[in-house]
Structure to design on (398 residues):
DNA sequence: CCCCTGATGTGATTTAGATCACATCGCTGC
DNA sequence: GCAGCGATGTGATCTAAATCACATCAGGGG
């Protein structure tokens, strides 16, 4: 298992490349993106400490279906494909864990597809705020720029800026450069709870 | 393994329900959908003979992340969850096959997310035509109504109708009720090849 | 045959939200 | 201090596409 360090903005692997192994986030933040020919970018998910990625192609096409990029200075650990196959042969339980990870990832992408296909941009931005908030502090905080938030929610910066201004006017969030503090979690949740989960 | 028969339009399971097992399509057509509170529906994928579904929750949340619906009169085979776990214990290779299926499914949803997030509706409709065409005949045919096509591509019927009229004027497709014949595959592919794959 | 219903075709209108075009603002390096 | 750059704020357009509102068409059952 090899440790690797990446700068903010550095690409880890590209869509279409042959997969090299399975990656674990030791520290930092990684996002998985799809870029279309028109240059627009859709972020599929962002991954922090402890999460893994690059797993899709391990058992099927061998080709990365998307691009991975470091959002912050990030340390990763890579388990090369051959080593991974070795380990998984020795420990069959690993496959079950991976299946569970895959299942969650599928559910999350299904959710994203629903959001992109049927929600308004405002709803998608709210959803992203909730999804990427750090719930550690007294008030949840989102450490992303408007630009990054826009790409996560499938829109453009200006729309995010305007929507956040709106939320700030309603005292639902408190915006600072590169950081959004959520003051009223309940309101945000209520707008999207009615969309998402059926209990 | 139990065989079950469903009418066109009948729901097989609902999002949020506890998963009962893994399903195989023996004949007919099934679609996996997400429905938002506003009533709009996003179809995630359509599955024909030989494909399986309902697999996501088997190893993680136990909750179906989406709804499954029969589009045609459809015969399914169900392997209950307990039986499935039994089989997978006896045959570890099964897990690897499932991982491969999951990987493909993930790649497909990643692709859908890109399409929904960054493509124009026209591109998405073209993409759906190619994805859901039956390539058996001389000319590929798509056996879907405009309504169904709209839900697969995340738009509304009128837009599909208009776009198909456009394609028909350019002699790229030949439309008949409930059936679209693709006359010029190359043109359709060229519009989306430049979006999708990097070789 | 005719009525009914589901599938289509098509215009007119509306609007969310993408684009463009700048103005600030705050930090970093020199 | 100030030049420069990345993040943000904001107005003024522009436009793809959703919505609304009908007309038509084709098949199936009684």
């Amino acid at each position: 298992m090899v440790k690797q360090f990446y700068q903010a903005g550095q690409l880890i692997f590209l869509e279409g490349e042959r997969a090299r192994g399975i990656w674990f986030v030791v520290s930092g933040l990684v996002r998985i993106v799809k870029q279309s020919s028109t240059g627009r970018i859709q972020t599929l998910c962002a991954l922090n400490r402890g999460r893994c990625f690059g797993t899709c192609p391990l058992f099927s096409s061998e080709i990365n279906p998307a691009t991975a990029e470091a959002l912050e200075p990030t340390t990763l650990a890579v388990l090369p494909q051959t080593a991974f196959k070795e380990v998984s042969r020795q420990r069959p339980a690993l496959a079950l864990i991976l299946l569970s990870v895959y299942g969650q990832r599928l559910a999350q992408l299904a959710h994203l597809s629903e959001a992109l296909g049927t929600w308004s941009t405002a709803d998608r931005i709210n959803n992203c705020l909730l999804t990427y908030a750090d719930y550690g502090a007294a008030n949840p905080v989102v450490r992303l720029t408007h630009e990054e938030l826009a790409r996560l929610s499938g829109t453009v910066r200006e729309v995010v800026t305007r929507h956040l201004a709106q939320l700030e006017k309603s005292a639902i969030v408190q915006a600072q450069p590169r950081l959004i503090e959520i003051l009223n979690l309940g309101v945000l949740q209520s707008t999207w709870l009615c969309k998402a989960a059926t209990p």
About this structure: The first strand of chain B starts at residue 2 and ends at 6. The first helix of chain B runs from residue 81 to 90. Chain B has two domains: 2-116, 120-193.
